[in-house]
Amino acid sequence: MGAIIKPDAHLILYLPSGNHKIVKVSPGRKVPLGKFGSFDADQILGHPFGLTYEIDNQGCLTVVDSLDSVVDEATWTDSEDNRMLVDDPDSQKMTMDEIETLKKDKQLTGQEIVAKVIESHSAFNKKTAFSQEKYIQRKAQKFLKRFRTQSIGSNELMEYYNAKDPARIMDLRMETLGLMLSLANVQPGGTYLIVDGVSSLVVCAVLERLGPEGQLVLLHENEMVNLEPLQLMGIDLVSDPRVKPVSFLKFLHPEEFRAELEFATAPPPQEQLDQLKTSQRNRTLRRYRKAVQYKNIVDLRNSHSFDALLIATTLQVSGLVQALIPFVHGSRSIVVYHPCKEPLVDLEENITRPDNRLIATQILESAVRPYQSVPGRFHPHMSLERGGGYILHCLRAYPTAVQAQGRR
Amino acid sequence: MGFLDLPNVISEGDLVMVRLGKSQFKPVTMQSGETLHTRYGSYPHNDMIGKPYGSQIPAMGDKGFVHVLAPTPELWTLSLPHRTQIVYTPDASYIVQRLEIRPGSKVIEAGTGSGSFTHALGRTVGTSGDVWTFEFHEVRWEAAKVELEQHGYKDIVHSFYRDVCSDGFQPASGVHAVFLDLPKPWLAIPSLPQYLELGGISRICCFSPCVEQVIETIKTLKECSWTQIETVEVSCREWIVRKEMRRTLEDVLKRQESFRERRSAIQQRKRKLEELEKQDDDDDSSVVGSPPNKDDIPYVDLYNPWGKGERIVKGDDRFQWDIFSAGERDIKSHTSFLTFAVLAPAPPKMKT
Ligand SMILES: C[S@@+](CC[C@H](N)C(=O)[O-])C[C@H]1O[C@@H](n2cnc3c(N)ncnc32)[C@H](O)[C@@H]1O
């Protein structure tokens, strides 16, 4: 593979501050970077993703190791502990004005400035390795004008929404999304039924695992499906043939759309088309193509053999799951995400447990705890502790006609 | 039928996951004429062959039943023969997502161990991908290789009997995701670059139970130019839904009121009895009337809304029920640290 940055690609740029930015890179165009200035897109077109660049005051890019590597760390000494360190606001000898001069007049790069700032810190060598690293990180975040490129997939999308507006993805996290995909046994070539109220994040993640043969039916709650937001990030769900959107009404009640289904049975006869004006003919053909796609969805529905049902929505899940049980094939999974436990507890108690078409119900809560590891220290990042939301998982079963005793 | 075929109907020779308990699954290969004996009854394979996956199968001449399920990497993880510690689904699913493993991905894994994670990897990379997995314990290597082949991963997973710390990862190539579950991953990390995809991003995850291992791993990753190093821990708990009878304060007050009524009734009765006795003593013949009778004294029923003394089935609709959930302890039997890192592609010549 080794994907490269193609003309007009959308990328996510990660900055030393931990922020990110989604941009489009078009030949001959400048890419604006806020207080970093801007650079010519041509400088990175054709490059692989994943490189880190430093941008100078003229907008010229150089490849560097990482967002915060600065100078050769081996040249510093550190102390075992900080008993020699006196808390002195004057230990930093350089003033903000002097730093500005370095930037403006001497045209130093961010990297050179950080090195100078460290040099002029009188007590730097008295700090422990731990606090040296912290200090450098802080200065790097402040002065380094760097960014790293990355293509946009489900993980980047999740990061983007988490920073911008986590409610739009119902606070969904990577560990929980990953668990959903595994429990639903999403794999190349499968056929999945999806309810996505998380800005198409689940759709996007399932597509990444589908391969060219797989397909998914996307149930939506509006008049029309809205796949455009991802279009703006270069993820094209609209023309992806594997994505088959349909409204709940048309999915659950195809009997109300007989005319459309009949229209799909044979292409409009040529002689009839010949009599039409071009615009009318095109409209008829478009209507026919849509009808065929709808019929295709109804056929999938009627085969009752989806390879999993994945749900992440603010709709009430109990009624939703109940309505969709029949379409899932035996032994396949139903996986429902919710940031709160209560809707899933209700779903288990009132729908999945009492119904013998569903077995092995489980509510799971997965959470990732990041650790801080800098030289000499290793401990949890207290500030980053958080919940990861909840998943209800169960399997579809076919009960025997004579109900066996007991409940397991 | 292999794990990847998503079969609908059970056929002769299929590996079927028979569900015996809450998360108890027994892998059984279908052979007509054979019978599966469990403590929930006996099940002839012929009763299962030809049925759709997911069917409930009644026991032969008995009340019990089982469900017959199609194998998945997750069910396999719950039922496989443990030859080593294994990676469980909460970790496995996070690693696959974070390492961006997809159909067509080329992945290195060492050591194979019991092959738990290998199944999950093979499922996701599919027939267009490759997993090169290495194990230096001969018996374990052989056992995992046989299982993986039987499970339909023959063209996807390539198993090698090898010490990766001394002998590397031949013939892997074009790899962009690496998973190391070894006691000393830092000995295997330096040789990795030659197997990685040129000009692409590579991602690694090292799975280690001890902090000392993590520290040594991070040191080596840094020396070998890996960046975005982060160590995390995944915890996953199950929530159990419970029904509890609703017992309200109002009912407690009514009940205590009824205690009080009973007490005063008893006292009244006592007083009456005493009075009667007194009368008896005073004049034994002058009073005409019935002799004292215990049953004349009112008896007060205690208010008992919770069916005390009865055996009550949860959900009995004479009572009100509340639904609660309680968190179980971590569902994995052991936790490890996951250390992730990224290796940037080699930089191209810069245009000026
Ligand atoms: C904990 S187990 C791996 C479990 C596996 N991830 C799973 O999910 O089933 C570790 C395995 O690595 C193997 N191993 C240790 N050092 C090795 C080396 N240098 N080369 C190859 N395999 C090694 C061990 O024999 C053991 O089977």
TrEMBL record, chain A:
Gene Ontology terms, MF aspect: tRNA (adenine(58)-N1)-methyltransferase activity
The keyword Mitochondrion belongs to this UniProt entry's keyword annotation: no
Keyword Amino-acid biosynthesis tagged: no
Keywords of this entry: Nucleus, tRNA processing
Compartment(s) where it occurs, according to its Swiss-Prot or TrEMBL record: Nucleus
One BP term from GO: tRNA methylation
A GO cellular component entry from the record: tRNA (m1A) methyltransferase complex
Pfam families tied to this protein: Gcd10p
Family: Belongs to the TRM6/GCD10 family.
The protein, known as: tRNA (adenine(58)-N(1))-methyltransferase non-catalytic subunit TRM6
Automatic annotation (TrEMBL), chain B:
SUPFAM superfamilies linked: S-adenosyl-L-methionine-dependent methyltransferases (SSF53335)
Any one biological process term the GO annotation gives: tRNA methylation
Entry-linked Pfam families: GCD14 (PF08704)
Major subcellular site: nucleus
Residues that, per the record, bind S-adenosyl-L-methionine: 135, 155, 181
Location in or out of the cell: Nucleus
Stretches the record annotates as Disordered: 270-296
Keyword rRNA-binding applies: no
PROSITE patterns found in the cross-reference section: SAM_TRM61 (PS51620)
Entry GO terms, CC: nucleus; tRNA (m1A) methyltransferase complex
EC number: 2.1.1.220
Catalysed reactions, semicolon-separated: adenosine(58) in tRNA + S-adenosyl-L-methionine = N(1)-methyladenosine(58) in tRNA + S-adenosyl-L-homocysteine + H(+)
One GO molecular-function entry: tRNA (adenine(58)-N1)-methyltransferase activity
Domain tRNA (adenine(58)-N(1))-methyltransferase catalytic subunit TRM61 C-terminal, first and last residues per copy: 64-342
Keywords: Methyltransferase, Nucleus, S-adenosyl-L-methionine, Transferase, tRNA processing
Summary of the function given for this chain in its UniProt record: Catalytic subunit of tRNA (adenine-N(1)-)-methyltransferase, which catalyzes the formation of N(1)-methyladenine at position 58 (m1A58) in initiator methionyl-tRNA.
Sequence similarity: Belongs to the class I-like SAM-binding methyltransferase superfamily. TRM61 family.
Protein name (Swiss-Prot/TrEMBL): tRNA (adenine(58)-N(1))-methyltransferase catalytic subunit TRM61
